[in-house]
Amino acid sequence: MKIEILGTGCKSCDTLYSNVAGALDKTGLSKTVRLEKSNDIDYFAKMGVFTTPGLVIEGELISSGQVLSEDRIVEILKTKKEGI
């Protein structure tokens, strides 16, 4: 599984990255998921992210302009894992 944080390096982007990393630890997925940051503005637009941070899981835009909590990310990951 690939998870991307789309952002320019702002505090919200860094916080979302940390929250995703924490959620991966909580779910035991940290060793099997590739977590990446992207600051490519053209890619943001392609993905439909016009307000950062953006959260993309397996090529699907999950959120934009929000810092999701670890618990919310855990819920999303459990749903995604069931779909795999």
The number of distinct structural domains comes to 1
Q: What composes the largest sheet?
A: 4 strands, mixed
- Portion in strands: 15-25%
Mean pLDDT: 94
CATH topology, anyone? Answer: Glutaredoxin
Structural class: alpha+beta
- Across the major sheet, the strand order is 2-1-3-4
> Architecture, according to CATH?
3-Layer(aba) Sandwich
What are the segments in which pLDDT stays under 50 over at least 5 consecutive residues? none
H/E series, N to C? EHEHEEH
Q: How many strand segments?
A: 4
Report how far apart the termini are: 9 Å
Percent range for helical residues?
A: 40-55%
Q: Regarding CATH, which class?
A: Alpha Beta
Please work out how many helical segments DSSP would assign: 3
Radius of gyration: 12 Å
Coarse shape: globular
Q: What is the CATH superfamily?
A: Glutaredoxin
